[in-house]
Design goal:
three-stranded antiparallel sheet; two-stranded antiparallel ribbon; alpha+beta; 6 helices; 191 residues; globular; 9 strands
Length: 191
């Protein structure tokens, strides 16, 4: 475990891009749209509980649509993530990738009273976890704190979305909710 550094080097095995389901926050989605111009309706999908077992049934980011539950994820096909360049096998939106992708395969360690202790490599993931490099933990911790803040906002958005009940409600309606909000904030900032 490392308080200041973690021994790790990515060898681009593509495990994270082909085997891991990425669950971006709305903030991640807005950032991807702004930085790449990608259409969120094309790069997002909504998974039902029987399509993803890694998310707890009581996770606050489950969207409720007329009695069915869905969770937002980056779209994938049989070759991996929507943003995995099929020729180069590298992330085509690397600089705009979700925070979850930036933190993988690191795991935060905290003391019993919730104070930062350090980072380790997840032991229960398929990443080979090569230890021939050194990664500073300070930027990882800053990403973790940023993600925690955005996760709270995400939970609040889902709560608002789940309270809305109307015929024909679809999980894709959730995208419109936060993309419109981001556009309104952006427009207001320019005026």
């Amino acid at each position: 475990m490392g308080r200041d550094t973690v021994q790790f080097s990515c060898h681009h095995c593509n495990h994270c891009c082909t085997e891991v389901v990425c669950l971006p926050t709305p903030w991640d989605v807005v950032r991807i749209v702004k930085q790449t111009g990608a259409n969120p309706y094309e790069f997002l999908e909504f998974l039902a509980p029987d399509e993803i077992s890694e998310v707890a049934k009581n996770d606050p980011t489950w969207l409720d649509c007329n009695g069915n539950r869905f969770i937002m994820a980056l779209r994938r096909d049989t070759k991996g993530c929507h943003f995995l360049d099929k020729k180069t096998r590298y992330c085509s939106i690397y600089e705009a990738r979700p925070i979850l992708c930036r933190l993988y395969p690191f795991k935060l360690q905290e003391t019993r009273d919730g104070k930062f202790k350090g980072f380790v490599l997840h032991s229960d993931v398929g990443c080979p976890r090569h230890r021939d490099g050194v990664v500073p933990t300070k930027p990882l911790y800053e990403l973790y704190l940023d993600d925690s803040k955005h996760q709270e906002d995400y939970d609040d958005l889902v709560e608002v979305f789940n309270k809305k009940q109307y015929p024909g409600k679809r999980p894709e309606d959730f995208i419109e909710m936060f993309v419109k909000g981001a556009r309104r904030r952006e427009k207001k900032a320019r005026t």
